[in-house]
Each structure stands twice: as structure tokens, then as C-alpha cells.
């Protein structure tokens, strides 16, 4: 696939496959194309070519995309309303909507907050809510753009734990991040981007991470 902005190629060509059950870290220095690639995978920006899902359908149909700033995604006046909004939009039966919202909030640990105003939540909880509202739609792949960028150290660990837990449910996760040191030990695969292309696609080898860090002028510390 390729992405163009006003005739300039920003991404690609990239030919890639994603598997369920896999946590993929999308790495790359600023401007390397992570966000644009992730948005193309989600079908949020136009792209040429195609990435096909294992069931033969376009990949974007199987994805749920979580924006970097969780506040931009808040649509409900309570946590519960926020999670059911998308489910109502896809026209599910009331019973199914409530079942899914309940299940999702249990998984993400927000059930006790279901009547809270989303804006009253902590940063980590807001991020969990943004993830919940997408998860409730039951995507096969969860696409996360810098999910810890707006969070302090404590909340980052909470999100890491949630992601570890979600991984066990069999969902595929593609996570664009600068916080390599937080996620590398739970990643199954690393995709390293540079100038809109994939420079490395494989296991989270320390050698690759060290090179990536040092290229950015930062010393790699485990
Ligand atoms: P990253 O997420 O890795 O920082 P981006 O995907 O945001 O990278 O950006 C990749 C490239 O695309 C950059 O050169 C950026 O300037 C360019 N770009 C991003 N968004 C737009 C846009 N809306 N119009 C034109 N160029 C853009």
C-alpha cells in the first residue's frame, strides 16, 4: 500500500501481513510515517493498494483505531454512554449493547466508573475509556496511536498491563509508540519505519532496538 498527500508519496510501498494474537510495535523517529501508516491501516486516510485480512476482506474493516489524545474521542456524558454510543450506531439490539458494554468495562477495569463523567477521570482512565469504546465494537485488530503519550509513569504502567491482558484475549494489537522501553518486553514483533518505508520487521531484538535508539541520539538502556 501507498499513501500520498497532495501527490507526494508519504508512505510505501509497504506489503505486510498482520496476524491475530500478535502485539506489534510500530517504531520510527518523528516524521517517519507511523501515524499516517496506522491511519491508512484503519482506513482513516486514503491509500492506494490494499492490505488484506486473513478472511480475505480489506484489513481496515477488521480494525478499531484509538486516537492519541483520548479526550478527542469522548462522546458520552458518562463512561457507560460513551461505550454504548458506537454500539448504538451500528444498530445492535439493546440486550447485546448492554452485554458488550458490561463485558468491556469489566475487562478494562472501568465498571465501577460507569456513571462517572468521562472528563472527571484520570489520564490513565480516560485512555482506558477510549480503548473500551473501541473494544466494545469487537475489532479483530486494535490500532493504538501513542497510547501512553499523554500519561505519567504510573498510568503508563496501567495501560501496559491492560495491553498485556488484551493480548491474551487473542486480539491483534498494532501500537505506534515512542515509549519502546515500556513495551518491548511484551511485543511479539517490531516494525521499524523510516521515510515512510519499513526498515525492519521482526522480533524485538535488543540489537535492533539499540541501533534505533542510538540513531535518535539516545543511549539504549533496558
Ligand atoms: P510520525 O507519526 O512517524 O511522526 P507522520 O505520519 O505524522 O509521522 O508523518 C509522516 C510524514 O507525512 C511527515 O513528513 C509529515 O510531515 C507528513 N504529513 C503528515 N500529515 C500530513 C498532511 N496532512 N499533509 C501533508 N503531509 C503530512
Outline the fold blueprint.
Blueprint: E1 3-5, E2 8-11, E3 23-27, H1 34-42, E4 63-66, H2 79-89, H3 94-108, H4 123-135, E5 141-145, H5 153-167, E6 172-176, H6 180-183, E7 189-194, E8 197-202, H7 206-215
Parallel strand pairs: 3-6, 3-7, 4-5, 5-6
Antiparallel strand pairs: 1-2, 7-8
Bound molecules: adenosine-5'-diphosphate.
Organism: Thermosipho africanus (strain TCF52B)
GO cellular component, one term: ATP-binding cassette (ABC) transporter complex
Keywords: ATP-binding, Nucleotide-binding, Transport
CATH superfamily placement of the domain at 3-75 and 139-215: P-loop containing nucleotide triphosphate hydrolases
* Oligomer category: single chain
- What is the level-2 CATH architecture name of the domain at 3-75 and 139-215? 3-Layer(aba) Sandwich
Tell how many strands the DSSP assignment holds. 8
Name the helix and strand elements from N-terminus to C-terminus, one letter apiece. EEEHEHHHEHEHEEH
GO molecular function: ATP binding; ATP hydrolysis activity; ATPase-coupled transmembrane transporter activity
Keywords: ATP-binding, Nucleotide-binding, Transport
Protein name: ABC-type cobalt transport system, ATPase component
Family: Belongs to the ABC transporter superfamily.
